[in-house]
Hints:
It is built from seven helices and 19 strands. It has helices at residues 17-28, 63-76, 124-128, 138-141, 157-166, 186-194, 288-316; strands spanning 7-13, 34-36, 50-51, 61-62, 80-82, 86-90, 96-100, 104-112, 116-118, 134-135, 149-153, 172-176, 198-201, 204-210, 217-222, 228-231, 235-238, 242-244, 274-276.
Amino acid sequence: MPSTTPHTKVAIIGSGPAGLTAGIYAGRALLDPIIVAGTEFGGQLMTTTEVENFPGFPEGILGPDLIERLKQQAVRFGTQLISENVTQIDIESRPFRLTTERSSLTADAVILATGADSKWLGLESETHLRGHGVSSCATCDGFFFRGKEVAVIGGGDSAMEEALFLTRFATKVYIIHRRNELRASKIMQERAKNHPKIELILETEVKEILGDDFVTGIHLLNNQTNETKNLPVSGVFVAIGHIPNSHFFKGQIATDDKGYVLIDDRYRGSVSGIFVAGDLHDHHYRQAITAAGAGCAAALEAERYLAHELHTNVQKG
Ligand code: NDP
């Protein structure tokens, strides 16, 4: 009996700007790509309000609207989307076999673009006020806090970088860190400590984010003295790290110790035929536009790989 498993030349896993841009390019290259979009379509941009730094939108665009436009553009060139999560990739078989919760498909090449999720504190008030003063991206949202006081949570390089960036707009930036020692590199620590607008509050945890419709402050606990206090701020930037969505191929494709996929200078993963784009490998820039650029590059590389494979197979045949 013939197999009913659908087959595609290129399967793209993930539907943020990296995956959708890969879909546009692979679609225009007539590769009939399938995007396995996940059940949470669109990635981190779906929880972003105004995106003001994506080129071509001088008035800005809402994150979900940008995703919708990218999707329409990918679909226009014949890209199919499946709203399922990939649970497993068989990297030993050729074509590759992708298993989702409900079905499976095979693909000659795979572009991984599953992104990374920001880590959050896990407070209900944080979820409620996300996009209303709570953010995980100063580059995206810092501009909205001109002339205001804000807090950055975390003690790593991201927190220092976010805080320094926010000094361009905010009148005061508090860095709240749970220990008495910062994790950030010495140079970043020094820059933050020496900045006149930045104040460090150490050995302190955020217990609640205050405000009904917008952030009005944070409730803090000093974990050494058990003293509590409310700090009035208009913005809270949570910078306590990210988690790359690489769990479903763990151990099969090379990653660093945090789970970010390692690639070469042509967006190739450690397994031939697997390409990678966006925050799944890039913990440095983490921008929609850099993810989209990487999606383009990964699709061009996948196209070249397939052309080469086809050529080699024809010669062998
Ligand atoms: P890190 O994992 O380095 O730091 C996370 C910070 O958040 C730590 O200080 C940690 O505290 C704190 N934290 C974690 N969970 C919680 C929690 N639940 N509540 C309160 N605080 C918490 O992540 P980063 O995103 O800062 O950096 C990731 C990588 O990217 C690093 O290797 C970094 O060097 C690199 N990077 C480099 C930059 C540069 O060079 N310009 C810029 C940004 C990132 P604790 O210290 O107590 O564990």
